[in-house]
Amino acid sequence: MKQINRIETMEQYLNESEQAVRELSEALERYEAIQPHFKKLSDYYGSTLWMKDYEDDEAGKLPEDLKRGVLSEDAVYDLLTDHHELILRMSKAITKSIDGKMI
Prior knowledge:
Elements: H1 2-44, H2 48-58, H3 75-98
């Protein structure tokens, strides 16, 4: 009975691991594809163009129905911070995996 339980447990681990690897691979593909946009957004934030757009928004020169999350002082900064933390987290996970501590 222990053998059957062990095999069933390992089969579950296999299925969960396959799904997680597949989902991570798909997410990584989306992440890699968006990098040029992320770079442009990062360059735009804090630039003279961003400052002009921000000031024009504050002066009411932009259409009221225009989505302007990019002009908030927190949205892009928070994204950049989250991105940095994610990079650190991925680096630690990769290091653990390479060192054999995860597998």
